[in-house]
Amino acid sequence: MTVYKAVIFDLNGVFLESRYLSDRFEETYGVPNKEFFQVMKGIMDQVRLPDAPPAFSLWESHLKKWNVGLNETGFFNFWFSGEHLVPELVEYTRQLREQGTKVFILSNNFKERTTYYREQFSEIFSNIDRAYFSWETGHVKPSPEAFKALLNEQHIAPGQTVYFDDSEKNIQIARELGIQSFIWHGLEAAKRIIETNNNSREIHH
Questions:
Q1: 166 phi and psi, to 5 degrees?
Q2: Cβ contact 144:171 at 8 Å
Q3: Is 36 found in the same domain as 65?
Q4: Digit-coded pLDDT (tens) for 139-160
Q5: 39 and 104: one domain?
Q6: Which of 2, 48, 69, 201 is deepest in the core (most CB within 10 A)?
Q7: CA angle at residue 115 from 19 to 62, to 5 degrees?
Q8: Residue 177 CA, distance from chain mean position
Q9: Structurally, how many domains does the chain consist of?
């Protein structure tokens, strides 16, 4: 076994936990869950890319149709305020980096949301080596290029890397590239994977 030189995490559903926005919108504003989700999927496919239009401009007509009286600030505050940090994971990434392991985030995301994260959850970014966001890189998971670009820029081999995500599609692509990849089942499970691997390597030495 190889000691992991790098750990890559997804962001949403890993560092940040929340209920589905579609569920919250249905509860608060009466917008049918499935209808909201379909609109959201179409918008997210656009805003996750570089040079996307302002995200709210794509939501505005739908909000009016649903009689939801939120302006841009109100809409994003409702959305983002439902996301909560997992502080124990931030602390663990700090420990990993102290031990010489590089830590990265690889996330499909959009400008307005990542701006909020960098302001409100700055402790995430001060305890990792770099965050790779699709709207900045142009690479959207599960595209293999999203993973290859990170590894190439950081000069890290796939086999020296472990990756955690809550999406089976993303995990499958990463595995095909030779990255040790696991569905996120919480911090304790991730610790066992990382530390069992690294301890095994030390014993064999």
A1: -95, 10
A2: no
A3: yes
A4: 999 999 999 999 999 999 999 9
A5: no
A6: 48
A7: 55
A8: 19
A9: 2
Half-sphere exposure of 7 (CA within 13 A, CB side): 29
Neighbouring CB atoms inside 10 A of 90's CB total 17
The pTM score is 0.93
Q: Assess whether 134 and 67 both reside in one domain.
A: no
Identity at 34, one-letter amino acid code: K
Which residues fall within 8 angstroms of residue 171, CB to CB, at 6 or more apart?
163, 165, 181, 182, 183
Q: Is the pLDDT of residue 137 over 60?
A: yes
Would you call 35 helix, strand, or coil by DSSP?
Answer: helix
Residue 154: inside a domain, yes or no? yes
**Which of the 8 DSSP states describes residue 71?**
-
**% residues pLDDT > 90 (the chain):** 93
| pLDDT confidence of residue 199 | 61
Per-residue DSSP letter, 127: T
Report if residue 1 sits inside a domain.
no
Nearest-angstrom CA–CA distance, 102 and 154 = 9
The count of residues in the chain is 205
Phi-psi label, residue 19: left if phi above 0, alpha if psi -120 to 50, beta otherwise: beta
Q: Residues near 102 by Cβ (< 8 Å), separated by ≥ 6?
A: 5, 6, 7, 129, 154, 156
